[in-house]
Design brief:
This protein is α+β, with helices and mostly antiparallel strands and 162 residues long. Helix content is 64%, strand content 10%. The chain is built from seven helices and four strands, in the order αααβαβββααα. It has helices at 8-36, 41-59, 61-69, 81-94, 127-132, 135-151, 153-161; strands at 72-73, 100-104, 111-114, 122-126. The protein has a four-stranded mixed beta sheet with strand order 1-2-4-3, with helices on both faces. The longest helix is centred in the N-terminal third of the chain and has 29 residues, at 8-36. The two termini are 33 Å apart. 24% of the residues are buried.
C-alpha cells in the first residue's frame, strides 16, 4: 500500500550508497595518484578528504544549501504569518515536525526543501511564489515540499549537490 513515506527506506539506502560510492571513488583516485607520484601521503590526504566531505555534507547539508541560495529566515509574524500557519497545519497533518522556513528575494516562483531528516529540514520559498499564488495553491506547493521531507528525498539531492 502506497503512502506518503513509500520511498523512505529506498531513499535512505540510496543516500548511503551515494556517500559510499563517493568515498570509494575519492580514495581510489588518491591511491592511483599516490602510486603514480610514488607519494603515499596522497592516499592519506584522499582518505581524510573523503571522510570529512561525507561527514560535513551529511551534517551541514541544509545550512550549505540555504547559504548558497542567499535565503533569509522567514519572520514568524507580520506579513508572513500565513505561510507559517500553512506550514504548521500541513506538518501536523503529515505527522512531521515543522521545518524552518526561509525566503529568497527572487521574482521567479520557486520553492525547495533541504535537510538531512525531518527534524533538521528547511523549506524555502521565493518572494515571487508568495506574490503570485493564492492560499490554496501555496498549500499545494508546500505540501509537495513536505512530501520530499517525509520521503527523505531532500537528503539524497542535497548530498548529491554537496
Amino acid at each position: 500500500m502506497a503512502s506518503l513515506y513509500t520511498h523512505y527506506d529506498r531513499n535512505i539506502r540510496k543516500t548511503w550508497f551515494l556517500m559510499t560510492a563517493f568515498l570509494v571513488l575519492v580514495i581510489a583516485f588518491g591511491w592511483v595518484l599516490s602510486l603514480y607520484f610514488e607519494t603515499p601521503i596522497l592516499l592519506y590526504v584522499a582518505v581524510i578528504f573523503a571522510i570529512l566531505t561525507n561527514v560535513f555534507s551529511y551534517w551541514y547539508s541544509d545550512k550549505i544549501v540555504i547559504k548558497m541560495t542567499g535565503a533569509k529566515e522567514l519572520p514568524n509574524e507580520g506579513e508572513y504569518q500565513n505561510v507559517h500557519n500553512i506550514v504548521e497545519n500541513l506538518s501536523i497533518t503529515a505527522g512531521l515536525p515543522k521545518p524552518r522556513l526561509y525566503i529568497i528575494g527572487d521574482p521567479a516562483p520557486n520553492a525547495f526543501a533541504t535537510g538531512r531528516d525531518p527534524k533538521h529540514a528547511a523549506v524555502a520559498v521565493t518572494t515571487g511564489l508568495l506574490q503570485i499564488l493564492d492560499r490554496t495553491e501555496l498549500e499545494g506547493v508546500i505540501a509537495h515540499e513536505l512530501s520530499h521531507v517525509g520521503n527523505r528525498d531532500i537528503l539524497i539531492s542535497t548530498i548529491a549537490v554537496v
